[in-house]
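Example record used in the benchmark description.
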Amino acid sequence: MKKRFRLMMIMAVSVAVFALGSICAFAQDEYDPSVNDYNVMLNGEYVQFSDAAPVNVSGRIMVPFRAILETLGAEVSWNDASRTVTAVSDDTTIKFVVGQPDINIVKDGKTFVKKMDVVPYINTANNRTYVSTRFVAESLGYTVGWDSDRATAVIIDYDRIFGNAEKDFSKIDEFMMKNRTDVNTAYETLMEMAVNVTVYKEFINSMAGENVFSKDLSLDVTADASAITKGSEMSMDMDMKMNIAELLLSLPADAVGDISAEDMELIKKLSNMEMSAYADMESGDMYFTTNVNSALDPSYGDSTWFKLNLYSVYETLGLDLKELMQASVSGEAYTVAQVLNLIAEASESEMTIYTYDEMSTVYEAMEALIGDSALKVTKSGSNTEYTADFSKLSVLTGDDSVKGEMVITEKNDGTYDCSFSFSVEEPGMMKISMSMDSTYDKTTKAVEKAPAGAQIVDMTSMFESAIQ
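Model output (structure tokens):
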């Protein structure tokens, strides 16, 4: 379970990054570009260049050296005779010569040399010395991305967001560090889950412009799953039931249209889906099969297994999650700060002008849930309970629409149970609720791979094409 809980935590944080990030981006004001063709943003704020605008040279955003370095908090000096720039910031000193590609970095007494692909130069039109934004910012320890839609170099000091993580999350870190994974032990996860999504009839009718629906639409999903995990491998069997058929049959005829007998048969199968899966986090390969293979395509039989390389799919989205996912099954213990930094690194290629605010929101949400000031740790006999109260997210939402809690029970034999309940409501629109109960125990059962002789259909390329 130790590995399983870590994997759940990392995946939860990953989902939070994108879910909360999307909300944050949606809430932003419409992008208002400055008069410059190219811009630089530091920690969510545009950098102002008063008398010399950024320019693009061979794909690098070049800016006046003094303006950018001082904005980054460095003390800057200029040697006119040697045309050398020196910048000192905390424990880092960088030095470069105009017209030369080397940038010398001294950090913690150690010296490194980087070669800039666009050398610093003097713009004779305004007598300003220009340097690459990316090279100087990264040399001083900042993370740099490129928002191509808004022609903006995005610089983020993640220490400013995550710098207090060790202090803010010491309780959960202590839990993680004392429960390191035994990669040579197999664990069995048993889980029961229920989800309900209710869309209120008033909202549907307002969208339709007429009173077509006389009752709310309510989708129910229940699932029972069992999984075996050992090392980097995992296999899972799941039965999932949805009330799709009943829901469609309850709708007004003019809202659904004609449903053929063939379509209804497929809907009924989808309403009672069975799935088996196998995944290896070392390679990123995942295999799965369902009881509706032939309903999706007559050429697929019961022995057909579909293959996806998760890392390739993530890379198509601009995300490098390989290190993050492999870390979850490595047997090492990772602190919240380390997990957050891995997520930040994974999303570097997709940074936008909203990324700083998104990451800040994710951190605030985590602190409200599992930070030391929020996470409740109690003893119950020989067990230890860790309780996170979802209603504390009200500090972000500004209302009490989020309710529920998660309780992890650490048992004295080194195994764990987890219960989870969650609901969020948008008044007059919809409500989503979810509950889950799971147990985690050591087992002698083995991870089950796709059977020998199974038909394997690689769907990785199809997924990559669909999301490009």
